[in-house]
Design brief:
binds glyoxylic acid; single chain; Rossmann fold; alpha/beta; 13 helices; elongated; 7-stranded parallel β-sheet
């Protein structure tokens, strides 16, 4: 399939114009103009004649969409996570799936650390306190938080973001434990990290930060049992995916002060329901899935998503292809 104006691409949201212009110069694009994701029936109809989709993590791309899109050869997701896409189904159909790894890890780690600091030192609560006119004098006992320096940080999943969070922890003088499916001896040595099993990490850490992808194995990785292993002073940070934590159990533990606090950028249901009981607690910070949201990083992600898509339309396998098992079928389907 040559990259020509004849190739049609559906983009599921307005992207930074520099990235969209690059795409529009090479192929024919249609862009969903809405602020919210396109409804499934729109996506189904729009997919009918396209060679490629440029999607966000809020777009569910399943077998039904793929069946409705006989020409579809690449799904370029503007996110590092791709649990919104049925990758197995895409591979069966010879459709390449790409993501945007690497470029967002430092930005995401910065944000995870911002949440850690904010939860430790009760920054959001303190801001509310001030705005409510409750700041009367310097108080010896008000809004006391926890020290971050010299505390123990537990990093669950030492991938790109996890490692950057670990390095930030070391910069703050923290002892850093990590657990991962694969032991990373070089990183341990280089950054002074300690490898432990999940149970030990949960029991010993003052701050626990989650950095695993969402898979069937990591669904509710942190539930009742894991929360009960944590210290009553522990703070849980989740910038990974909402369903990695059992949110009902988290609510109970926070409400009963069986752990001290949490800060989450992701939720089991996104957006979080307005009547979710977590919103009634003052010991949790909840942000709207913005860990990678810096001007520079979002532009880089959009450009990488465009680049991945165009590379595939040119008949080359993009380096960020997440389903290499699809390549043989994908090549067979390319027009000669
Ligand atoms: C954000 O959550 C991403 O996966 O890029």
């Amino acid at each position: 399939m040559a990259e020509t104006k004849a190739a049609r691409v559906y983009v599921t949201r307005e992207l930074p114009s520099t990235a969209l212009d690059l795409l529009a110069e090479a192929v024919t694009i249609r862009v969903w103009p809405g602020e919210l994701p396109p409804p499934p029936e729109v996506l189904l109809a729009e997919a009918a004649d396209v060679d490629a989709l440029l999607t966000l993590l809020t777009d569910r791309i399943d077998a039904a969409i793929m069946s409705a899109a006989p020409r579809l050869r690449v799904i370029s997701n503007m996110a590092v996570g791709y649990d919104n896409i049925d990758v197995e189904e895409a591979s069966r159909r010879g459709i390449l799936v790409t993501n945007t790894p690497g470029i967002l890890i430092k930005t995401t780690a910065d944000f995870a650390f911002a949440l850690l600091l904010a939860a430790a030192r009760r920054v959001v609560e303190a801001d509310r306190y001030t705005r409510q006119g409750r700041w009367k004098t310097w108080e010896p006992q008000t809004l006391l938080g926890q020290d971050v320096h010299d505390a123990t940080l537990g990093v669950v999943g030492l991938g790109g973001v996890g490692l950057e969070v670990a390095k930030r922890g070391r910069g703050f003088g923290m002892r850093v434990l990590y657990c991962d499916g694969i032991r990373k001896l070089e990183e341990e040595r280089r950054y002074g990290l300690v490898y432990v099993e999940l149970e030990q990490l949960l029991a010993e850490s003052d701050f626990i930060s989650l950095h695993v992808p969402l898979t069937s194995e990591t669904h509710h990785l942190v539930g009742e049992r894991e929360l009960s292993l944590m210290k009553p002073t522990a703070v849980l940070i989740n910038t990974a995916r909402g369903p990695v934590v059992d949110q009902r159990a988290l609510w109970r533990f926070l409400e009963e002060r069986r752990i001290a606090a949490a800060a989450i950028d992701v939720s089991e249901e996104e957006p979080i329901a307005p009547d979710d009981p977590l919103l009634g607690l003052d010991n949790i910070i909840i942000t709207p899935h913005i860990a990678s949201a810096s001007v520079a990083t979002r532009l880089s992600m959009a450009k990488m998503a465009v680049d991945n898509l165009l590379t595939a339309l040119r008949g080359q396998v993009p380096p960020q292809c997440v389903n290499r098992e699809a390549v043989r079928r994908w090549r067979r389907a390319l027009p000669r």
